[in-house]
Amino acid sequence: RMIADIVPNSQASPFAPATAESMAQPTRVRFWGVRGSIPSPGRDTAFYGGNTTCVEVRTGGELIILDAGTGIRPLGLKLEEEFQDRPLQATLLLTHMHWDHIQGLPFFRPAYRARNQLRILGFQGASRGLEFGLSTQMDNPYFPVNRRRMLGNIVVEEVKEMNFFIGPGRVEAQLLNQPGT
User: Fold this and answer.
1) Is 31 exposed, middle or buried (0-12, 13-18, 19+ CB in 10 A)?
2) Exposure of 85 by Cβ count < 10 A (0-12 exposed, 13-18 middle, 19+ buried)?
3) Mean pLDDT by 10 residues, the chain (181 residues)
4) Number of helices and strands (H, E) in the chain?
5) What is d(CA 113, CA 96) in angstroms, rounded to the nearest whole number?
6) Alpha-carbon distance 4 to 6, whole Å?
7) How far is CA 83 from CA 50, 79, 173, in A?
C-alpha cells in the first residue's frame, strides 16, 4: 500500500499548463469514500461515509483522485454536473490493486466520455500489471460492460519511482505494511 503527500511545485501539468490563477487557489480535499473492504452506505455511516476509498484533491489547477473505491461513482456524477460539456482532465492515483480500491472505476461515468482524459497511475509491481487488473475486473462474467467501452482518453502508467510530479504537485509515496504491493 502507498500513501502520498501532494505538495505544490512549479512543474507544468501533462494535460494543461498551470496558470497563475490556478496556482493561487488553495488546495482542496474532499473524501468521497473512507471505508475499507466493504461499502456500507446508509444512515449508520452517514457521518464518516459508507463508500470505499476515494479522495478528491484539487491543487495547482490539477484534479487528482486517490483510489477508485465506490466513492468514485458519486464523485463522477458531481464532476459531470460541474464540467457539463467541457472536457475533464484528471489523474487517478491507485494506492494498490485490492478490490476495495478499484471496484468503483467501472461506475466512473466521466471515463465513458470521449472528450475526457484520465491518467491512471499505480506503483509498479502489481501482479500482471495495472492495465490487466483494471480490465479483468470488467471482463465477462464479472461486469456487463468491458473496459474497451470506456471511450475516454485513458492512459494507464505504472510508476517506478516513489517521488514524482503531477503537474505542479510533487507526490511522495511510501510503502506501508499491507499485503501486496
Assistant:
1) middle
2) exposed
3) 43 47 79 88 81 94 96 97 96 93 96 97 80 91 91 93 89 82 64
4) 4, 9
5) 25
6) 6
7) 25, 6, 30
